[in-house]
């Protein structure tokens, strides 16, 4: 109580919705948050921006009671608090919309909204009330949803809406959103922003966590920048620029340009025509994809996550079977009736750096050296007779670890004990060591530190200069613009067009990603 | 509370299993105490029963043989992240295979042919019985734990039906086959010794112990030295990544389960070809389940499995001694011990991890952290 | 009434008796599994419940104390399961197996230490057991054709615990679908994170579910040794816990379908007992072993997707890690 800010009292202004004072949190040897202090004014939209791994998520988990701060104070509405669980946060009026939705797919909207908020031992009474609340929120805030629809049948944007409704219904006056637009189309994102503005105007304080500067500029009132676990600046959004925030975020002036010469496109290595794929439940994930990729060329694929890029990568690498169309790669044709598989593709000389190194690229419980032969473990060079040649594999791995500057340098270290950047280097080293004829890359720098990003970008360009044909899928527009010779934009599983690098800029690509084709946009 | 520092590998492999074992034995000691007997005396009786009495070591190794087979069976499936609870069923069907060969070829063929074929049949029948759940898991997503449990019961019904019906020894009431001809008996250790004019106390230990030792070696080479083993472990750790690496995940799962069944089936070589010399009901007597404890304690590694099998062999043999020495505790106490071991080394395997890690960190930690 | 109809009626009557422990254990398994905790230890808890109730009934002469004791013992076993699976995030199958083996060993060991009868408890007298409850007006209705005999044989004359089991089915269904607790149990078995982020403790919910499973298994055990039987004998659960688990799966983790699966499996057992050695027209000797194995075969076929699809609670078997 004594800690109420006297200055605020004098001016009779309401205390900030949330105030953090010197909050710190350490995991093992990593200090995720260092002396974080900030204020979030009531009825405002406050952005927290930072790169992946900067400590945003930890901070938000502390606010929502999923982690406990080691030191420091959290004040809600001027009152010191002791948040130890999500229940504490909820009681304080804090609600959260997680990046990965906390929804139960085979429950109805109504049931999802009611969990933790049932209104009594029997569901009957609470149900009616919940339906009334849903209707009310629908009309007041423009958040219409059918209470009896199953979550699994709803599109992503609506599911997110259910998350917001859940929070508001349980009495949240402070709403935290974690990377809310990562899975949304630009239109859905715009819809979300509209809702957030309405919420703000009705007195809800919104805390928006993101790494996208455009969003910060578009919707927030104030912004705090976090880097390496520390707050490096607070700004009023109207007083700052994208460039300034970008500099604060990365801690130096950013040059998004990657040094590279002109490309010399050679023969066609990959020819895709009318490729399509549907999910098990029959939803079209990919359709009508048609392009050629040549030796010595990088074709970038831009798009919001979840617009068919994953399916495209998996089909081209042999992990999935296309449902329609065909592609021919290095003279081998693959159609819905003529399957391929990852082993065959690799034999043809195709490298594949998968989007998710933890899910696909590595076996985290394997030693680094076992991961260096992963996918190539059929090659005779790793065997003496029919038994694995352990010594050769160790030497081979040490060699690669040196070449690609992987640290720590012990090939017997388990993959899970490397940092994200070093794990990614293991995957890349393995996939490009024997200069593939075609390289398929997904999100090469996701969750990778800046130093490693530069290294990886250089490797990709170098590989192109050696004549490799490269398909680069990334959700980071800067990466696409920095590396590609040509750019294909995807939306809702379809290609919106292919541009030469010179014709492309963020605005054009952004419009195309939103589903507006080049001709429409003009 | 801060999270505990990671446990060093040597402590994870050596210290933690011993602590878990001690915890299990300690709780069992309390139970024996509550039943009004002295746990230490019981321990001494069991040790004497397992190692000291004439022939006791032979009996201990005879039990050990069973546990090596069933332990390997569970372990190979574990490496593919498959939980095979069906060892009992696979072993009984394996026994059926061995028995059929022994009855069919025993009278007409020399041991040099009938024995290898019978051993092979035990493995093949066991493999076939595990193949079905493996196939259903790999191709149709049927939960392996449930299907293998169900297959235990189905196997038991099959055995009752066969042994009380088509295979029953003519003119007999009890559900069992006729006794095999001597050429289908695996050589007994005592007989071999006798041939070399060395006199040893009688025990059921037989040639299948040697087969078990070979199985340990084969297991080690298979899992850590071959392409199949590499793919097996990759599938076990991360099936999605295995798919990315071009490994045929369903094939590996099916093979792992078939191998698992083969190891379990080989248990029958000890019981059926080595000791009973006929197929009887329930000869598996829960050894298949004990294999789970063995694999858990042995950390799915042949050396560990051998040691754990020896421990359980000693428990089973020593436990029988309890019947003679005590009023209130009997050989069923071994089941309690086994249950406790599964609880502490399996389900509660990591309960002592954080405190041990903190302790070791406090002892040696200072120097190491500076290094990093 | 024809001979066949009477035989059928008697078989149905036996079905109810055989199905009682299955129903109780299946409802137990339902609570545990819907909350996300695999429970193969139904078998062990059933066995322990049977032993403890018979032992206490024999020593203190009261079947009611027996039930209480059985419930208490099974709650302890359930708490061990919870401690391993919830608090220490251990493997749920391994924990369940440990409990089954422990129960198997402890019942006989303690039985021998207490009674010196090779692991059995002494035979229980009538007033130490649950005896059949005669429903009112049996004699009056008996005169009514068909209905009378059905009322006498099938409805009336079971012991109290059977009626408890039957009532527990609608009660369980009500809890699952109409109460806050039920909604949360179903939610925590699907997406525990969602429950956690709604400010509800995942662990406490699961502990309660597991303990309810213990209570129900205790009653089931008491039925075996002080209701259906007159004392405990070694391994008297004889795989019934596993059949109940099969019924839960066969009923796709829903109370009423699981209840009907219990009746079906009970009927197969009752019928096979009646048909032992009987020559049937066309098929010859009754395939009783096949009938006994049928529940297991049916579950395998179901899991293989040959008869419908069973989708378990999504979070089942996965320890919750904050």
Quick overview of this protein structure:
With 522 residues, chain A is an alpha/beta fold.
Give a description of the structure.
The complex is a heterotrimer of chains A (522), B (372) and C (322). Chain A is of the alpha/beta class and 522 residues long. Chain A is built from 19 helices and 22 strands. In chain A, the strands form 5 sheets. Chain A has a 6-stranded mixed β-sheet with strand order 6-7-8-3-9-10, sandwiched between helices. Chain B is mostly helical and 372 residues long. Chain B has helices at residues 9-34, 39-52, 56-79, 87-105, 111-140, 144-164, 189-195, 208-225, 227-237, 239-244, 249-276, 287-297, 302-325, 333-347, 353-371. With 322 residues, chain C is an all-alpha fold. Chain C has helices at residues 3-34, 42-60, 63-87, 92-115, 138-142, 147-155, 160-178, 180-190, 192-197, 202-228, 240-250, 255-275, 288-303; strands at 279-280, 284-285. In chain C, strand 1 (279-280) and strand 2 (284-285) form a beta hairpin. The longest helix of chain C is centred in the N-terminal third of the chain and has 32 residues, at 3-34. The model of chain C has no long low-confidence stretch (mean pLDDT 92). Chains in contact: A-B, A-C, B-C. At the B-C interface, helix 5, helix 6, helix 12 and helix 14 of B face helix 3, helix 4, helix 11 and helix 13 of C.
């Amino acid at each position: 109580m004594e800690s109420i800010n006297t200055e605020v009292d004098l001016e009779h202004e309401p205390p900030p919705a949330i105030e953090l004072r010197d909050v710190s949190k350490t995991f093992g040897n990593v200090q995720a948050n260092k002396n974080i202090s900030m204020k979030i004014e009531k009825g405002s939209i406050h952005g927290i921006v930072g790169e992946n791994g900067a400590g945003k998520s930890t901070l938000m988990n502390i606010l929502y009671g999923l982690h406990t701060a080691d030191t420091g104070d959290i004040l809600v509405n001027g009152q010191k608090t002791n948040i130890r669980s999500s229940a504490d946060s909820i009681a304080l009026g804090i609600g959260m919309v997680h990046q990965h939705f906390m929804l139960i797919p085979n429950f109805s909207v109504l049931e999802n909204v009611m969990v933790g908020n049932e209104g009594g031992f029997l569901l009957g009474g609470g149900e009616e009330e919940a339906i009334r609340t849903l209707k009310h929120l629908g009309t007041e805030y423009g958040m219409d949803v059918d209470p009896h629809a199953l979550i699994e049948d709803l599109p992503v944007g609506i599911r997110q809406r259910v998350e917001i409704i859940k929070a508001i219904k349980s009495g949240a006056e402070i709403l935290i959103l974690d990377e809310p637009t990562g899975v949304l189309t630009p239109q859905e994102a715009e819809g979300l922003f509209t809702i957030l503005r309405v919420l703000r105007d009705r007195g809800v304080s919104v805390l928006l966590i993101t790494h996208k500067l455009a969003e910060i500029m578009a919707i927030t009132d104030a912004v705090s920048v976090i880097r390496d676990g520390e707050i490096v600046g607070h700004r009023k959004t109207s007083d700052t620029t994208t460039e300034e925030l970008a500099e604060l975020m990365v801690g130096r002036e950013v040059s998004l340009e990657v040094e590279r010469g002109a490309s010399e496109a050679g023969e066609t290595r990959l020819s895709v025509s009318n490729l399509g794929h549907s999910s098990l439940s029959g939803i079209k994930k990919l359709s009508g994809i048609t392009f050629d990729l040549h030796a010595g060329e990088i074709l970038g694929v831009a798009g919001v996550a979840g617009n068919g890029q994953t399916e495209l990568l998996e089909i081209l690498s042999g992990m999935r079977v296309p449902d329609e169309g065909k592609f021919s790669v290095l003279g081998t044709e693959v159609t819905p009736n003529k399957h391929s598989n990852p082993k065959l593709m690799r034999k043809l000389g195709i490298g594949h750096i998968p989007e998710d190194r933890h899910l696909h690229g590595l076996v985290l419980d394997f030693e680094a050296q076992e991961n260096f032969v992963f996918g190539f473990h059929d090659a005779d060079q790793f065997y003496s007779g029919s038994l694995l040649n352990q010594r050769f594999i160790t030497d081979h791995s040490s060699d690669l670890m040196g070449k690609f500057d992987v640290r720590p340098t012990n090939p017997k270290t388990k993959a899970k004990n490397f940092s994200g950047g070093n794990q990614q280097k293991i995957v890349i080293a393995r996939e490009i060591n024997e200069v593939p004829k075609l390289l398929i890359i997904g999100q090469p720098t996701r969750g990778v530190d800046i130093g490693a990003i530069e290294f990886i970008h250089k490797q990709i360009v170098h590989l192109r200069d050696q004549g490799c044909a490269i398909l680069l899928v990334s959700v980071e527009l800067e990466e696409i613009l920095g590396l590609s010779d040509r750019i294909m934009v995807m939306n809702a599983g379809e290609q919106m067009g292919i541009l030469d690098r010179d014709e492309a800029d963020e605005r054009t690509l952004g419009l195309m990603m939103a589903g507006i084709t080049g001709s429409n946009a003009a | 509370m801060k999270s505990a520092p990671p446990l060093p590998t040597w402590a994870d492999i050596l210290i933690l299993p011993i602590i878990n074992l001690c915890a299990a034995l300690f709780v069992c000691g309390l139970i024996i105490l509550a039943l009004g007997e002295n746990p230490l005396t019981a321990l001494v009786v069991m040790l004497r029963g397992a190692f000291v009495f004439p022939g006791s070591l032979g009996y201990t190794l005879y039990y050990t043989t069973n546990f090596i087979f069933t332990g390997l069976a569970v372990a190979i499936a574990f490496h593919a992240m498959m939980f095979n609870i069906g060892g009992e069923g696979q072993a009984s069907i394996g026994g059926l295979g061995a028995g059929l060969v022994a009855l069919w070829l025993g009278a007409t063929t020399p041991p040099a042919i009938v024995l290898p074929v019978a051993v092979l049949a035990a493995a093949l029948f066991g493999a076939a019985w595990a193949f079905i759940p493996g196939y259903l898991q790999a191709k149709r997503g049927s939960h392996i734990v449930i299907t293998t449990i169900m297959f235990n019961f189905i196997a038991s019904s099959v055995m009752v039906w066969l042994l009380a019906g088509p295979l029953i020894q003519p003119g007999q009431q009890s559900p069992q086959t006729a006794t095999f001809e001597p050429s289908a008996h695996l050589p007994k250790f005592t007989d071999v010794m006798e041939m070399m004019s060395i006199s040893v106390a009688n025990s059921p230990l037989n040639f299948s112990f040697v087969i078990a030792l070979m199985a340990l070696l084969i297991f080690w080479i298979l899992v850590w030295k071959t392409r199949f083993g590499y793919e097996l472990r990759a599938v076990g750790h991360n099936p999605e990544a295995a798919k990315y690496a071009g490994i045929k995940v369903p094939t590996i799962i099916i093979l792992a389960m078939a191998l698992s069944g083969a190891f379990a089936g080989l248990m029958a070589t000890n019981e059926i070809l080595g000791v009973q010399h006929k197929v009887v009901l329930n000869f598996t007597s829960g050894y298949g389940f004990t294999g789970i404890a063995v694999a858990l304690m042995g950390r799915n590694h042949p050396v560990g499995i051998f040691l754990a099998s020896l421990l359980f062999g000693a428990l089973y043999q020593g436990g029988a001694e309890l019947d003679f020495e005590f009023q209130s505790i009997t050989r069923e106490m071994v089941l309690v011990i086994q249950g406790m071991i599964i609880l502490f080394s399996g389900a509660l395997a990591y309960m002592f991890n954080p405190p041990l890690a903190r302790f070791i960190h406090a002892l040696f930690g200072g120097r190491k952290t500076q290094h990093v | 009434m024809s001979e066949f109809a009477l035989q059928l009626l008697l078989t149905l009557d036996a079905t109810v008796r055989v199905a009682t422990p299955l129903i109780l254990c299946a409802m137990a398994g339902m609570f545990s599994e819907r909350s996300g905790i695999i429970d193969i230890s139904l078998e062990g808890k059933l066995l322990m419940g049977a032993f403890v109730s018979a032992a206490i009934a024999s020593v203190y002469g009261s079947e009611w104390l027996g039930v209480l004791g059985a419930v208490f013992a099974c709650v302890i076993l359930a708490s061990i399961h919870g401690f391993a699976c919830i608090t220490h995030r251990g493997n749920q199958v391994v924990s369940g197996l440990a409990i089954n083996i422990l129960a198997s060993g402890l019942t006989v060991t303690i039985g021998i230490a207490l009674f010196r009868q090779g692991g059995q408890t002494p035979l229980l007298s009538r007033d130490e057991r649950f005896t059949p409850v005669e429903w009112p007006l049996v004699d009056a209705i008996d005169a009514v054709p068909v209905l009378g005999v059905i009322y006498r044989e099938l409805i009336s004359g079971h012991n109290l615990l059977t009626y408890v089991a039957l009532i527990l089915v609608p009660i369980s269904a009500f809890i699952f679908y109409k109460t806050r607790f039920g909604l949360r149990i179903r939610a925590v078995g699907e997406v525990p994170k969602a429950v956690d982020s709604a400010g509800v403790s995942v662990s406490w919910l699961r502990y309660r579910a597991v303990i309810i499973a213990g209570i129900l298994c205790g009653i089931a055990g008491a039925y075996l040794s002080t209701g259906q039987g007159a004392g405990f004998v070694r391994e008297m659960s004889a795989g019934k816990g596993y059949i109940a688990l099969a019924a839960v799966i066969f009923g796709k983790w829903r109370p009423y379908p699981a209840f009907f699966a219990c009746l079906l499996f009970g009927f197969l057992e009752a019928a096979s007992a009646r048909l032992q050695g009987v020559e049937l027209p066309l098929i010859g000797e009754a395939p009783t072993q096949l009938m006994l194995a049928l529940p297991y075969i049916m579950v395998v076929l179901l899991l293989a997707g040959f008869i419908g699809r069973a989708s378990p609670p999504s979070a089942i078997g996965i320890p919750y890690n904050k």
